[in-house]
Structures are given as structure tokens and as C-alpha cells.
Write a structure and sequence with these properties.
The complex is a heterodimer of chains A (537) and B (62).
Chain A (H helix, E strand, L loop, with lengths): L6 H13 L2 H4 L23 H5 L25 H40 L6 H28 L17 E6 L2 E7 L12 H24 L6 H24 L7 H5 L11 H19 L20 H18 L13 H27 L4 H16 L7 H25 L8 H19 L14 H32 L6 H6 L2 H5 L7 E3 L6 E5 L2
Antiparallel strand pairs in A: 1-2, 3-4
Helix pairs in contact in A: 1-4, 4-5, 4-6, 4-10, 5-6, 5-7, 6-7, 6-9, 7-9, 7-15, 9-14, 9-15, 10-12, 11-12, 11-13, 12-13, 12-14, 13-14, 14-15
Chain B lengths: L1 H21 L5 H29 L6
Helix pairs in contact in B: 1-2
Classes of the chains: A mainly alpha (537), B mainly alpha (62).
């Protein structure tokens, strides 16, 4: 023990620095005082009541020893008080950061809503907007009931948020000599011991991520999805499908442990959810689009595709800006804290660069191929760049972030054409391409570009094992998530039906499904494909 | 045929997964090959077999 005696004055000095006591820090350090016991008063005090009553225009009298929480006011500030205050400050900073980032991600719902609505026809605007509006509530409720428990029920050890110790139970099977964590088992209804401040922060942040996945689906099946089918499908996705994969990747499940169990790098790494959020949403979007089928008028009898333009490019691009803004919560917030995670700056810069190069790649592609810089594809390119950088944003440098974003932007253009013209799957907003192609490429790019700075090293930096882990993640998305979500939506199709009637579709879904037009003063053209911006009277 | 497409997708997932347990920790080349094979099978199942089945009953063919 004697050899560690020097630690105590160091600890004291560190605690004082953290707690922000400038007066103390400026005092001469000629003679090191004997370290006080943890519960002994340090004999420090802040400004007097009279000083404070005079006001503090320069800010030097606010945030002093007076503001350190004391266990015993009569005794004054003790070492234990200081250390506790430092811990509170760290966790407080992390709570604040994570919550604010969560609020930003929540606002992305507004971005998704207007992007999707703008890319669809005016006769369906109310219906599309209402799906995006209510998916928030349906998803939140299902996630509170069971989704969060399935996903994060064994997430104890989240040190950035104080440990989240009540989340301590997982169902795992022992198979082929290894434990395979399948789902968490604590936190249903956020009841019992999960009535905990750290768990609440984790819940809010994870919930808005889940809702992002749900809102992807509403785009691919827009303009023909029966509202009641949308309600049921969203609840299942938010309460079961998404949480299952999210547990495997983020909640300590078997994908997360591929590194420990099979020596594959750091295990499946998906920093902010190219796979967990965007690809899971895209798999469901693809399943929905397949089951429901294309819109009437989208394809001719010879199989050639007709363009069905959206009704408001203004709101589409405004929505893209809102999403790009929200992404600063999505990616940097995934550190779950700022204190002890200063890489938030790198993550934020990676994010903005990838979005920029994504939109650049998309307009370049469209300009070269079609002679014009297409506005909606520029928006989709921005989003695809952001989706692609979501998984690797915590692990790559800025040069690689630019490459990842650029490739994401190119991929979305090619994918939209391929899905639309070759596969003949009708996806009105390109959700499957933006979130599927972009998302899967994002997962892959961790295995290629991760530079090892933050514990994950990809193929280009010397670890092929990480690439294998990422490919297993992609195989799981295609081979488990897609069939699962397809089966769920097929069941909904059989039981209640997914598609509206042809008459309702031709008329537009605003009146038949919602009971009100989004734009009552406008006259819709009889062919139902475009809006005539003509005043009714 | 829809079931065949879905089964192909699932098989494509199981191939790299079972391959993990049958290969030693250092054999990344074999694992990489199995992953690519599995993903390819899943893609064929979803985008070709399953999609073709849906295309047969597409609204624009009626």
C-alpha cells in the first residue's frame, strides 16, 4: 500500500480541477499538504452571501465551492463530496449530451415525414403524413411494452450512463460450444428496478432510433397501404423485429460477441446503426413493397416503368436538411456521452463530410447520365451518404468518410434504377435504396475502412476478421431479418389485407382512408398522377 | 415458390453461421468465402426467386 501513497494527493488535485475551483488551483504549490481523510473538511469556501447578493456580472463568483453538493453542510466540502461531485458532473454531462442528441433524432421524424410526403402525389399527402405522424406513437408504445426489454434487457455495464445495472438478464442458448445471446429479459414496461435514471436515458435514445427504422417502411409502400395494416405492421416492427436484431448487435447478443467467441475482430460493429436501424427498416420496406405490389400506373403491360413524380420538391429538400441536422444527434450521440468520449467531434465531421460527398456523387451521376442534376436524387444522395457513414462514423478518418459517402451516393442512384426498372419493385421514395443499399454498404465499410483508432480495425488497416464479422451481420439482415419481417407482413396480408382497393388508390387515399384532403383548395387532375395547382374557385 | 425464395434466404444466412463453428479462429479466408457464398444465395432467393413469384401476379399484368 505504501507504494501507492502518492496517488492520494494526485486524486485530490484531479478532483479539484474537475470541480472547477479556480481559487484553489491558483494557490501556490510550494508545500504539498498532508492529504485529508475522505470525510474531513477541506477547509475551502466560496464567496460570502454578501458578495453573492451584490451580483456576479463577470461570472467569477458562480460555480465555486458553494455549489459543490455537501453531505454535511456544517462540516463543509470534503474529499468524498468532491469525488462524488466529479462523478455526478461526468454522468450529468453524458445524460445531457445523450438526451439532447435523442431530441435531435426525434425531430428527424419531421424530416422523414415531409421527404416522403413531398415525393408522393398530392392526392395521398394526408395519408402519407399521417403514417409518418402516427408511426412515432405506435412505435414508442410497442417499444415501451416489450421492445426495449428485448433489445436492451441485458445492457448492464453501459458505463457512460452510470452502468444501467438493472438491465441484467438475457436469454441465451448454448449451441455448438458457444453461448448465443438472443434477447433481453428485463425492462418490460420500464417497471421494477428499471425505474432508474440511467435506464430512462438509454430508453429515450434507443426509442428514437427504433422509430427511425419504422418510418423508413412508410415510404416504400406509400400511396397504396391500408392504414390499419400500417398500424399493425409498425407495432410488430417496433416491438419485436427491430429489437431482436438490435439486441444481437447492440444489446450484448451473439453478433456483438463474434469477436470474443470466434476471434472476429471486435465483433459485429455498427456504431450508430447503418445495419441495426437503416437496413432493418429497409428489409421491412422491401418486404412490404413486394407483398403489396406496385402502384396502379407505375408499370405498363410491357413491363416498362413510368415515372410518377412527387408533388413538392421544396418540402423534399427541406426535409433532407432537417434529416442532415438530426444526423448530428444520430451519430455523435451514439457515444452515449461527451465526458470520456471526445471523439464526438470526429464523428460529427465524418457525418457532415459523408453527407456532402453523397449528394455530390448523386448529382454528378444524374448530371452525366441524364444531363440534369436531379433534385430528388441529390436529396437521396445526401441521405445515402449519411446512412452509409452511420455505422463507420465512430471508427474512420475523414478521408475514408468522404469515400464512404461518395460510394453511398453512387450506390443509391444505381440501386433506384435497378429496383425500379429491372426488379420492377415500386418504391415511391427510394427507401429501399437509400436505407438498404446505403445501410448494407455502411456495415461493410466498417470491415474495410475502420482504422483501429477506436478499437475496430478493418481489412485495409490489417484485420480481415472484422470484415468477416460485418459480412455475417449483412447475411443476418438478408437471411434472418428479411424472411422474418416478410412472414410477419404476409400474415397481416392474409388476416386483414395490406392493400387498399383500386378505386381508393385511383381516387387518392386522403378521403377514403383519412377522411380529409391535405390540400382541399387544389383541384387534382383526373388521371391522379399529378396535381394541378389550380384554385377550386 | 415464395417459400423457396425465403428458404434460400435463410440457408444463405446459416451457411456462414455454421461455417463459423466448423473453422478455426484464424481461418478468415474460408470464413470470408462462406460469407460471400451465403450472401449470394440469400440475394438470389430474395431478388430473383421471391421477386419473380410476386411479378407473376403483379397488378400491371392483369
Amino acid at each position: 500500500m505504501k507504494s501507492f501513497a502518492w496517488l492520494r494527493p494526485c486524486l485530490l488535485a484531479t478532483a479539484l480541477l474537475i470541480s472547477g475551483l479556480p481559487g484553489w488551483a491558483q494557490s501556490p504549490a510550494a508545500a504539498t499538504p498532508a492529504p485529508p481523510a475522505g470525510d474531513a473538511s477541506l477547509g475551502v469556501s466560496g464567496p460570502s452571501a454578501e458578495d453573492l447578493a451584490a451580483g456576479d456580472p463577470s461570472g467569477t463568483k458562480t460555480g465555486t465551492a458553494n455549489d459543490v453538493a455537501k453531505a454535511d453542510a456544517a462540516k463543509g466540502v470534503t474529499l468524498t463530496d468532491l469525488v462524488n461531485q466529479a462523478g455526478q458532473n461526468r454522468i450529468g454531462i453524458n445524460f445531457t449530451w445523450t438526451l439532447v442528441c435523442g431530441f435531435l433524432v426525434m425531430f428527424m421524424q419531421a424530416g422523414f415525414a415531409i421527404v416522403e410526403t413531398g415525393l408522393t402525389r398530392a392526392k395521398n399527402a394526408n395519408h402519407t403524413m399521417m403514417m409518418n405522424f402516427m408511426v412515432y406513437g405506435f412505435g414508442l408504445f410497442a417499444y415501451w411494452v416489450c421492445g426495449f426489454a428485448i433489445q436492451m434487457g441485458s445492457a448492464a455495464g453501459t458505463t457512460m450512463l452510470g452502468g444501467a445495472a438493472p438491465l441484467n438478464s438475457e436469454y441465451a442458448i448454448h449451441f455448438l460450444g458457444k453461448d448465443w445471446g438472443l434477447f433481453g429479459m428485463t425492462g418490460f414496461f420500464l417497471s421494477g428496478h428499471t425505474y432508474d435514471v440511467g435506464v430512462m436515458v438509454l430508453f429515450l435514445f434507443q426509442m428514437v432510433f427504433m422509430d427511425t427504422a419504422l418510418t423508413i417502411v412508410t415510404g416504400s409502400v406509400a400511396e397504396r397501404w391500408k392504414y390499419v395494416a400500417f398500424c399493425v405492421s409498425s407495432v410488430v416492427l417496433g416491438g419485436l423485429t427491430y429489437p431482436l436484431f438490435a439486441h444481437w448487435a447492440w444489446g450484448g447478443g451473439w453478433l456483438y460477441k463474434l469477436g470474443a467467441n470466434f476471434g472476429l475482430g471486435a465483433g459485429y460493429a455498427d456504431f450508430a446503426g447503418s445495419g441495426v436501424v437503416h437496413s432493418v427498416g429497409a428489409m421491412t420496406a422491401l418486404a412490404g413493397a413486394l407483398i403489396i405490389g406496385p402502384r396502379i400506373g407505375k408499370y405498363n403491360r410491357d413491363g416498362s416503368a413510368n415515372a410518377i413524380p412527387g408533388h413538392d420538391i421544396l418540402v423534399v429538400l427541406t426535409g433532407c436538411f432537417i434529416l442532415a441536422f438530426g444526423w448530428f444527434g444520430f451519430n455523435p450521440g451514439s457515444t452515449l456521452g461527451a465526458s470520456g468520449a471526445l471523439r464526438i467531434s470526429t464523428v460529427a465531421v465524418d457525418t457532415m463530410l459523408a453527407g456532402c460527398t453523397g449528394s455530390f456523387a448523386a448529382i454528378l451521376y444524374m448530371w452525366i447520365k441524364y444531363g440534369k442534376p436531379d433534385a430528388s436524387m441529390a436529396g437521396n444522395g445526401l441521405l445515402a451518404g449519411l446512412v452509409a457513414i452511420t455505422a463507420p462514423s465512430g471508427y474512420v478518418n475523414t478521408r475514408d468518410a468522404c469515400i464512404i459517402g461518395f460510394v453511398g451516393g453512387l450506390l443509391v442512384c444505381m440501386s433506384v434504377e435497378f429496383i425500379d426498372r429491372v426488379l420492377r419493385i415500386d418504391d415511391p421514395v427510394g427507401a429501399t435504396s437509400v436505407h438498404g443499399a446505403g445501410g448494407l454498404f455502411g456495415v461493410l465499410s466498417v470491415g474495410l475502412f475502420a482504422d483501429g483508432t477506436n478499437g475496430v480495425r478493418g481489412l485495409f488497416y490489417g484485420d480481415p476478421g472484422q470484415l468477416v464479422a460485418q459480412l455475417i451481420g449483412i447475411a443476418t439482415l438478408l437471411g434472418f431479418v428479411f424472411p422474418f419481417t416478410y412472414a410477419v407482413n404476409w400474415l397481416i396480408e392474409v388476416i386483414i389485407g395490406q392493400r387498399v382497393s383500386a378505386e381508393d388508390e385511383l381516387e387518392g387515399l386522403d378521403i377514403p382512408e383519412m377522411g380529409a384532403l391535405c390540400y382541399p383548395e387544389f383541384v387534382l387532375k383526373p388521371d391522379g398522377r399529378t396535381i394541378g395547382a389550380v384554385a377550386a374557385d | 415458390m415464395k417459400l423457396v425464395g425465403l428458404l434460400m434466404a435463410v440457408v444463405g444466412w446459416l451457411i456462414p453461421l455454421i461455417g463459423l463453428t466448423m473453422t478455426s479462429n484464424g481461418s478468415n479466408g474460408a470464413r470470408l468465402t462462406l460469407c460471400i457464398l451465403g450472401i449470394a444465395i440469400s440475394c438470389v432467393g430474395i431478388f430473383y426467386v421471391l421477386n419473380q413469384t410476386h411479378q407473376k401476379e403483379a397488378v400491371w399484368k392483369r
